[in-house]
Design brief:
This protein has 192 residues and is an all-alpha fold. The protein has one domain: Up-down Bundle (Four Helix Bundle (Hemerythrin (Met), subunit A)), CATH 1.20.120. It is 66% helix and 0% strand. It contains eight helices and no strands. Helix 2 packs antiparallel against helix 7, helix 3 runs antiparallel to helix 6 and helix 4 runs antiparallel to helix 5. 36% of the residues are buried.
Length: 192
Amino acid sequence: MPYVTTPTGLVVFAVAMSVFVVQEFAQGFGTPEAASIRDDRWALLYLDVLPVALVTAASIVSVSGWGTWRGSGTVFAIGVVVLGVGVVVRQWSHRTLGRFHQAVVTIQDDHEVIARGPYRWVRHPMYAGSAVAFLGVGLALGTWLGLALTFVGTLPAMLRRIRVEERALEDSLGDGYRRYASGRARLVPGIW
């Protein structure tokens, strides 16, 4: 059985997930009705509902013990640390954006390109942090299917939302955003 199913594993995982969820609520969830762009409505639904469903399904798989990998205690510890790193990157990104962070894609009248903090290295560090956090969740749950559900399963929603945001930023900020984007990868420095 995965380490997360032990009393200690369960408590540690519950605390780590609580921190993840609380910081998500602190940053604000959007509602599809608040989104003005059709693609953004779907992206919000996928970003708010899909991760909850996938983590729930992955947790059920973990409790069943199906597909548990060897050394699940070590992998669990690595997963919790990776989850924590993802949360820190998300928080750092959120604080760097300040008032320009909105749950729905919103270009403000005085909107500007942010190129400091984690935005020096990638265009979407908040989503990079999410991907890292979901990788950590999948590792902590201790099964291959759990990892696939939480990490791989959430990527399409993030990638779709990135396209929506980039289109809005290019349309509104023009060459300034295109210059910024041309020198930075989307999620992984130097790769994509």
